[in-house]
Amino acid sequence: MKTHRVALIPGDGIGRDVVDAAWSVLQALAARSGFALSGTEFPWSCAFYKETGRMMPEDGIETLRAFDAILLGAVGWPAEVPDSVSLHGLLLPIRKAFVQYANIRPHRLLPGVQGPLKAEGFDILCIRENTEGEYSGAGGRVHQGLDNEVAVETSIFTRKGVERIIRFGFEQARSRRGKLASVTKSNAQKYSMVFWDEITKQLAAEYPDVAVTSYHVDALAARMVMAPDSLDVIVASNLFGDILTDLGAAIQGGLGFAASANINPDRSAPSMFEPVHGSAPDIAGKGIANPMAAIWSGAMMLDHLGEKDAAARVMAAVSAVTAKGIGTVPGKDSTDAITAAVIAALTTE
Ligand code: NAD
Ligand code: IPM
Ligand code: MN
């Protein structure tokens, strides 16, 4: 029997609850399928930082490299560790080191979930560039604390990085409804974003079957609210993709439903699966975190590992549960109750 080796990083806050939930669903499924999942847990988190002075050990990346996939909860506990330290010490280096350049985030309403919009039939796949752009970490501050202080944060866009993510967007659009929205702010940012628009145009010639439109990010944000059903695949830079996918989460009923996959398309290193949301300090410890985003991310992991039927079964169980109104209203059902309902649905769906 095939065994997939998964590194589990619950992280901080509700990360623990939702990784436990997703992992128990995946284990229940594996028990009924022709494969096994072995999980190795790593306690890397803000608590780990407080004990050791690091978010993960020095050889953390090398340790993770041996796994087939990574399932992560959330990183960040800003009351105790600055976000700029915790995220640059754990989550962001994994995405970069493992060249997980495509961050895939699906936005659609699960059955029974009431979104805030009138439109219900939307099905958007946001492809977010995940290794460079505004998150390059290049910059600095001079004259700190003085009146003439200056802070610089440089966005780095490489031809290789931009081409591969836009190409990935075209490929996804080709396998879906054939529409690609390429997002920039090239009316204001005249170097990187004009570069992005040019590369979109160049690649469009290779994909005559895909209808591509370039949007400014502000207009695209409005379109996501006013006409989400007019969108299919969106491809955006790191920061724009980050913001648009919290908007996507909102229109699909909330952050508790938004899943994501940090994919290394070349499979030269493990990919990482995590909900879009963070550690939610405001509800941490209350047992009411919605585990659906993490469970959905787990389904994306199975799909990536080649277990397509199993992935579809997880999503069928999730949909059967939300269709009954379980887990659809924030705070109404406990994390455990929602998880138990999904596991029960796996046997009946
Ligand atoms: P957040 O996503 O943690 O929370 C935003 C709001 O959404 C909160 O009101 C929260 O209660 C709610 N929410 C989030 N997930 C939920 C769930 N599963 N079920 C029900 N409600 C949910 O964003 P934030 O408050 O800006 O960030 C908190 C910490 O998490 C910060 O340290 C931040 O940097 C970090 N963060 C980490 C990740 C990640 O690890 N990928 C993502 C986003 C934020
Ligand atoms: C996300 C998060 C991260 C990001 C933060 C925590 C660095 O918001 O995964 O969407 O911006 O990528
Ligand atoms: Mn985000």
From TrEMBL:
EC code(s) of this entry: 1.1.1.83, 1.1.1.93, 4.1.1.73
Main function: Has multiple catalytic activities. Apart from catalyzing the oxidation of (+)-tartrate to oxaloglycolate, also converts meso-tartrate to D-glycerate and catalyzes the oxidative decarboxylation of D-malate to pyruvate.
UniProt GO molecular function: D-malate dehydrogenase (decarboxylating) (NAD+) activity; tartrate decarboxylase activity; tartrate dehydrogenase activity
InterPro entries: ICDH/IPMDH, IsoCit/isopropylmalate_DH_CS, IsoPropMal-DH-like_dom, TTC_DH
Protein name: D-malate dehydrogenase [decarboxylating]
Catalytic activity: (2R,3R)-tartrate + NAD(+) = 2-hydroxy-3-oxosuccinate + NADH + H(+); (2R,3R)-tartrate + H(+) = (R)-glycerate + CO2; (R)-malate + NAD(+) = pyruvate + CO2 + NADH; tartrate + NAD(+) = 2-hydroxy-3-oxosuccinate + NADH + H(+)
Subcellular location: Cytoplasm
Cofactor: Mn(2+); Mg(2+); K(+)
Native source species: Rhizobium aquaticum
Family as reported in the entry's similarity comment: Belongs to the isocitrate and isopropylmalate dehydrogenases family.
Keywords: Lyase, Manganese, Metal-binding, NAD, Oxidoreductase
Main location: cytoplasm
Transmembrane segments: none
Residue ranges of every copy of the Isopropylmalate dehydrogenase-like domain listed in the record: 5-342
KW NAD (keyword) present: yes
Organism lineage: Bacteria, Pseudomonadati, Pseudomonadota, Alphaproteobacteria, Hyphomicrobiales
Recorded metabolic or biological pathway in which this protein acts: Carbohydrate acid metabolism; tartrate degradation; 2-hydroxy-3-oxosuccinate from L-tartrate: step 1/1; Carbohydrate acid metabolism; tartrate degradation; 2-hydroxy-3-oxosuccinate from meso-tartrate: step 1/1; Carbohydrate acid metabolism; tartrate degradation; D-glycerate from L-tartrate: step 1/1
Domain of life: Bacteria
